[in-house]
Amino acid sequence: MVRAGVHVSIAGGIGKAVDRAAEKGCDVFQIFSRSPRGWRFKEISIEEAERFASKLKKSGIGPVFDHMPYLPNLASQKEDVYEQSVSNLTAELYRCGQLQIPFLVTHLGSHSGSSKEEGLRRLVDAVSMSFSKTENEVMLLLENTAGTKNSMGSSFGDIAAILDGLDSDRLGVCLDTCHSFGAGYELRTPEGIRGTLKEFDSTIGLKRLKLVHLNDSKGDLGSALDRHEHIGLGKIGKDGFRSILRNKTIKSVPLILETPIDSRRDDLENLRVTRELASY
To answer: Catalytic residue positions?
Structure first.
């Protein structure tokens, strides 16, 4: 069976996330350790971190993934944004260490105002600086993008260049199915999935794949549209996800759903559909 879960809220205290994940029947889960929509944040106390780690251990759920907030842009050409982005990445790596969360997922930002090569250089420098200031074993997972204008990391080759530029065992990859499909990687057939994963392996290496963000797509193949849809109700479709969830490589890594919550479905229903499609 697959190990699947969703992104859960920390409202009311970070320990509440464990309760919510358990209530939803998650095998794994993802959080923002703080509000994702601002630069400022409250530090985590030693007591709060210990309570979270203890509750998590007792729950038997894991691994857990933290996600970087929305504002940081590690490839930004604006010095104030860049400095705050590096500071936030450093702080989030430290917070993961406090909470005993082994993985931190990050978006790769935009090179708007410069070339992709310059964006790559700044991104590599940003991660290098943050790693040098956080001496823990938290692994940073680079999330692929859908190919929106000036975005970093929409191709496997771009991600490989970042990994080569850093040459660190603290780096892995989070593969988002919606983003991959938007960037032109075929995921609707067993053959397409095998071809996509073969390219991933030849450019990045499957040993780097630590997490899959399992999301259907509102956009067509190669549309560069980053719009998540319920599992099986988007352009990848039910048959596509049945093929995805039967693939041995994908079944071997944790799956986090970042699907909508609306009148059609909630997290529980998307998890149910995921497990149903994986069981065929």
So the answer is: 37, 67, 70, 107, 143, 176, 179, 213, 226, 228, 258
Q: Tally the domains of the chain.
A: 1
The 10s digit of each residue's pLDDT in 56-89 is: 999 999 999 999 999 999 999 999 999 999 999 9
* Cβ contacts of 22 within 8 Å, gap of 6 or more: 59, 61
Instruction: Name every residue whose Cβ is closer than 8 Å to that of residue 38 and which is 6 or more positions away in sequence.
Output: 69, 71
- In which band, very low, low, confident or very high, does the pLDDT at 124 lie, cut at 50, 70 and 90? very high
Provide the β-strand partners of residue 42: none
Instruction: Please report, for the domain that includes residue 125, its CATH number.
Output: 3.20.20.150
Rounded Cα–Cα distance for residues 223 and 77 (Å): 26
CA 226 → CA 36, 74, 235, distances in Å? Answer: 18, 19, 12
**Structural domain boundaries enclosing 24:** 4-278
219: three-class secondary structure by DSSP:
coil
Q: Could you read off the pLDDT of 225-271 as tens digits, one per residue?
A: 999 999 999 999 999 999 999 999 999 999 999 999 999 999 999 99
Whole-angstrom CA distances from 64 to 18, 50, 61, 147 are 10, 15, 8, 27
CA distances from 195 to 187, 202, 278 (A): 9, 11, 20
C-alpha to C-alpha distance for 4 and 60, rounded to whole angstroms: 14
pLDDT band at 211 (very low <50, low <70, confident <90, very high): very high
